[in-house]
Every structure is written in structure tokens, then in C-alpha cells.
Design goal:
Layout: H1 8-11, E1 31-34, E2 58-60, E3 87-91, E4 99-106, E5 111-114, E6 120-122, E7 131-134, E8 141-147, E9 153-161, E10 167-177, E11 181-182, E12 189-196, H2 204-214, E13 218-222, H3 232-235, E14 236-242, E15 248-254, H4 263-268, E16 274-277, E17 294-296, E18 300-302, E19 305-307, E20 312-317, E21 320-321, H5 324-332, E22 339-341, E23 355-359, E24 367-373, H6 374-382, H7 391-394, H8 406-409, H9 412-437, E25 444-448, E26 451-454, E27 462-465, E28 474-477, E29 482-487, H10 502-510, E30 515-520, H11 533-536, E31 537-541, H12 547-550, H13 552-555
Parallel strand pairs: 2-10, 12-13, 15-16, 20-22, 24-25, 29-30
Antiparallel strand pairs: 1-10, 3-8, 4-7, 4-9, 5-6, 5-8, 9-10, 11-14, 12-31, 14-15, 17-20, 18-19, 20-21, 23-24, 26-27, 28-29
């Protein structure tokens, strides 16, 4: 370990750094000033000519992974061959007898620069040194820049000193590590996870439907290895960080819920270019800390502010909501400017129960926002024969709801409960999304949703989906098309004929035409367990753009 380095436990909760506002230049080449004191010193080989001295800003990835797979984060080691998370800083050549002085300011705790001889400035020396003076020679030299955390920033002042120690030229550049950027539903899909189980009727049918489309992009996690914990969306959230040198770090945000799947990130996601990390304490976990309650929108423009990576949103109302430690870390990443809405009225309390995004190539924004709507469900149910039999709904608990016909879905008490949820909660949340994401009415698809009351502790009754929640879906963007995997609502008599289901007919009619739509049977394991397809799956996605090219306006504010 380098002198002064913290051990891994100490570093785990450091959080992200802050951006520098000390006058650093914009992207690219720093501003150069040349000076000539008019001296006739024989050692001055420039003969009074100005020195062309320019350097490029550095945008890198935090060195948090384990490239040599020795069980230790690479930041906690000396540089080694194979560590691909060091960014190169090219220092131009200077005349013989001249030297270059580097002065680093900003987040010295999380940045360091190595010279060819192993000397360094920034973190790693005790006390921390902020200045390095060396002779790059006429051909110049390449230094290594290393970052310890997400979204940390520094400013480097490089000064050329003549043989007399006088300033001959100078330039100032930025050093900045990538923020941790959460994925959104428009990004290409690289991998999808689902947990296989045979309990509670099993999920073999749904897994087979996923595999038929996803092929080798589907990772099936054996349920007996994770305590039969099927809610993989709730345990992990995927994010990426990229550097200008092409490096990429995948962060698997590990929820503090720490149920059976808690072992999965730690056992399978520690390898080069990947790391699982947890923010917060499992001792304080609530249902709101499961990651069905944490999402990111596609790119949006709100007023005159562009968010090229979208905005993070989650459920929170007063003390009920996402843990503050993680919420503060997400705030510190800046580029996705998180906001929250009230999900405390839902039994499970997750934002994915009522909202989602799907791609739409015909839309100016490139997406449609799907949001739960009670009135749309009333229109469908009232249009059906009230005596229509519903075999799945008619099953006795715990396999069904004990509601054998459509008439049972439209009782006065259920109608009143749903209409109240719409007026008290869904309508205000819809308006909040419109304001926070700059949405227009044509961007929104109202998805028929029908709740039932359930006792979930203080403040009951809470709401859960009575008709399987079709808004709670998986988006898989593959080479051939974008595919949606949606809970089969089973609002029909013939269970084998999906085309006869009015909820399916309505949903398909509302979707963008170029999407491939797949209704899967998630009734027994997931719907009756108070979740749907999105809760049951998770996805790794390809980064959509480079933050240092598209999001610097957000980091400089």
C-alpha cells in the first residue's frame, strides 16, 4: 500500500468528490501564456522565441476495479502492467535545461499523478504533495493520472521554467473522473438477469419466453443459490463510468435490502472493469431501498437545460424513501439531477409499479413515458360483459384473488378506492413528472391500471396491482428490434388466447409500432408475490454517449 493510502474499508464510504470552480478551462487545450524576460543568458537555447506549450485536459474513470484480480482495488496498489484505468497526460517537450512545474489543486485526496520514476503528486504521499518539478526533455513525456472516486475534479497548472527558474510559459487544464451514470431504457441491452425457481408454481414459462428472444444475453441465476430471492431488480442497479481513453467501469449498485440476492453482486461482479458497491447500512433498510424504487429517464430537456443521460427519480415522502446515503451519492454525481415523487401510498412502495419508459423512434424525444391510469382501466372493464369468467382471478388465495368474474373487479368499493388513488396520488405524480422531465401530453401513454387495497402496516390500506401491472415491464434493445416483456393481465376467459384479452389489445394499440411486444406469464411467482416483470429482471446496458462531450455544462454549474 502507498504511504498515506486509506485501506478499503476506510475508502468505501468516501463518496464522490466535488467539481472544481477555480477557473479551470473548458474541454480540450488549456490556455497558454508565454514569457520572455529578454535575458541574453547563454543557457537560454530559445533565443527569446516563445515556447509552444499546450496540454490536453484529462477525463478518466475511477480506478475502483481489480484488474489484476488479487482481491484489492487497484487504487490501493502501485501502478502495474495491465491496469487499464490510468489516464495519460502528455507533457510537451521543452528545450534542454528547462523544467516543468506541475501544481495540482482541487480534490487532492482522490487524484494523483505519477511520473516515469514513480514520483507522484496528489494522494499517496504523506503529507500530500501538490507540486512536481521535472525535466520532460525535448521529446516530452507521458504521465499517468489516477482517480480514486467518481466525479472528482482538479485543476493542473503547468509552468515551464527556464534555466534561471523564471516562467517561460504556462497552461491550465482540467482533470476529472467520470460520474457514476445510471442506465436508462433507451440504451442497448448487453445482458439480462432472471432468477430461476420451481417454487410457487415456478417461472419456467416466463424464463423460456425471455430466452427465446434474448438467447445468450440471458443470465439465469439458480434460485437455490440466492435463497429463492426472485426480485433481482430490487437487489441491484446498473451504472457506468467511461473515460476519454476508452476505459469503462461498470458499477453494480448493491441495495442495502440484503436479502437472499445480497450475495450475488459480491460473488459474481468483482472482476476487471466491474465493481459492486453499497451506499448506506443494511440495518436501516426499508422497502423503499429496493431498486424497483430507483430509475432513470432517457435524455430530456427541461426548460433550457439538457440532460443527455436523463434524470434519476425515486420514491420518497418525508422519512419514507430511498436511504439518504445513497440519495446524497446520486446527487453528487450531478449529471442526472435526481428528483423524487411520493410512493408511500403503495404497499411495496416502488416507482416501477406506476411508471416506465419505452423507445419510440417516431417521437421527437425518442421515447414514450408510460404511466398508470385508473380511468383507462374503468373504460375497459365497463366495456366487458360483467359475467365474463376470469379463471386466474377466480383462483383462491394464495394462487388468485377469489374474484371469478369481471363484475367482481368493478364493485363499488374497488371503484372508489381506485378513483381515490388516481385523484390523491397519481394525478399529482403525473404533473410532477411533466414538470421535472419537460414532458408534453403527446409524450405520455396512459396505461390501464387497477389496484386493490391491502394492509401493509401504518397508514393502511395501501395499494397493490389487482390486475397484473403492465407498466412494470422489461425493455430489451437488441440488434434486431426493441422488445418489451410485459405481465400477461389474464383479463379473459380463454387463458390460451391472448388476442381475446382487452387489456392486451388496449396496451398493444397504445405502443409505438416498431416495438416487439411479448406478454409473459408471471402470475404465480411474481404477481401474487406483489411484483411483475420489471421486478423480476435486470439489465446491463451500453453507455449512450461521453459525459465529457455532452454533460460538462451540468458539471460546471
Amino acid at each position: 500500500m502507498l504511504p498515506g493510502c486509506k485501506d478499503e474499508d476506510e475508502r468505501a464510504d468516501d463518496g464522490a468528490g466535488t467539481t472544481s470552480d477555480d477557473g479551470a478551462d473548458d474541454l480540450g487545450t488549456g490556455t497558454t501564456e508565454s514569457h520572455d524576460d529578454g535575458s541574453d543568458d547563454d543557457d537560454d537555447d530559445t533565443n527569446g522565441e516563445e515556447i509552444d506549450f499546450q496540454m490536453e485536459s484529462v477525463f478518466g474513470t475511477p480506478n475502483l476495479d481489480d484488474d489484476d484480480e488479487n482481491g484489492q482495488r487497484d487504487w490501493l496498489q502501485l501502478p502495474f502492467e495491465g491496469d487499464n484505468d490510468l489516464s495519460q497526460l502528455t507533457v510537451p517537450g521543452v528545450p534542454e535545461g528547462y523544467r516543468v512545474e506541475l501544481v495540482l489543486s482541487g480534490d487532492l485526496e482522490h487524484i494523483r499523478i505519477w511520473d516515469a520514476n514513480g514520483g507522484l503528486i496528489g494522494h499517496g504521499s504523506d503529507p500530500i504533495q501538490d507540486t512536481l518539478v521535472f525535466a520532460p526533455g525535448p521529446e516530452g513525456t507521458v504521465l499517468d493520472v489516477e482517480f480514486a472516486e467518481y466525479n472528482v475534479a482538479g485543476t493542473l497548472l503547468a509552468t515551464v521554467l527556464d534555466p534561471n527558474g523564471a516562467e517561460a510559459a504556462s497552461t491550465t487544464i482540467d482533470l476529472h473522473s467520470s460520474p457514476m451514470i445510471m442506465n436508462h431504457h433507451l440504451q442497448p441491452t448487453e445482458e439480462v438477469w432472471v432468477v430461476e425457481v420451481s417454487n410457487w408454481g415456478g417461472n419456467a414459462s416466463m424464463v423460456a419466453d425471455l430466452e427465446a428472444v434474448l438467447g445468450d444475453k440471458l443470465t439465469k441465476v439458480p434460485g437455490n443459490q440466492v435463497g429463492l430471492d426472485v426480485w433481482i431488480q430490487d437487489e441491484i442497479e446498473l451504472a457506468t463510468s467511461v473515460g476519454a481513453n476508452g476505459t469503462r467501469l461498470d458499477t453494480m449498485i448493491d441495495s442495502i435490502r440484503e436479502r437472499g440476492l445480497g450475495v450475488y453482486p459480491k460473488a459474481t461482479q468483482v472482476y476487471p472493469d466491474s465493481i459492486p458497491r453499497m451506499w448506506g447500512s443494511p440495518a436501516s433498510a426499508t422497502t423503499f431501498d429496493a431498486f424497483g424504487n430507483l430509475e432513470a429517464s432517457p435524455p430530456v430537456t427541461v426548460g433550457d437545460v439538457e440532460y443527455p443521460f436523463g434524470r434519476i427519480y425515486y420514491g420518497k415522502e418525508g422519512p419514507a424513501g430511498l436511504d439518504d446515503v445513497l440519495a446524497n451519492h446520486l446527487d453528487a454525481q450531478t449529471v442526472q439531477n435526481p428528483f423524487h415523487v411520493n410512493t408511500s401510498w403503495l404497499c411495496v412502495g416502488h416507482i416501477d409499479e406506476i411508471s416506465s419508459f419505452v423507445p419510440d423512434s417516431a417521437s421527437p424525444k425518442g421515447f414514450k413515458f408510460l404511466f398508470s391510469d385508473v380511468g383507462a382501466a374503468v373504460d375497459i372493464l365497463e366495456g366487458m360483459d360483467p359475467a365474463t369468467s376470469l379463471p386466474r382471478f377466480g383462483l383462491a388465495e394464495p394462487n388468485g384473488h377469489g374474484i371469478p368474474t369481471v363484475n367482481g373487479l368493478l364493485t363499488n368499493s374497488l371503484r372508489a378506492f381506485n378513483e381515490d388513488r388516481q385523484a390523491l396520488y397519481l394525478d399529482p405524480i403525473r404533473e410532477r413528472f411533466i414538470a421535472e422531465l419537460g414532458l408534453d401530453e403527446e409524450d405520455i401513454v396512459d396505461v390501464p391500471t387497477w389496484f386493490e387495497p391491502i394492509n401493509c402496516g401504518p397508514g393502511s390500506p395501501h395499494a397493490v396491482a389487482l390486475v397484473p401491472g403492465t407498466v412494470n415491464l422489461l425493455v430489451a434493445n437488441l440488434e434486431d428490434a426493441s422488445h418489451l416483456f410485459i405481465a400477461d393481465p389474464f383479463v379473459r376467459s380463454d387463458l390460451g388466447d391472448q388476442s381475446s384479452d382487452p387489456f392486451i389489445q388496449d396496451f398493444v394499440a397504445r405502443m409505438p409500432r416498431d416495438l416487439q411486444v411479448h406478454f409473459v406469464d408471471n402470475w404465480f411467482v411474481y404477481h401474487m408475490g406483489l411484483g411483475e416483470v420489471h421486478c423480476a429482471t435486470n439489465a446491463r446496458r451500453t453507455p449512450s454517449s461521453s459525459w465529457f462531450e455532452t454533460a460538462m455544462h451540468l458539471l460546471e454549474n
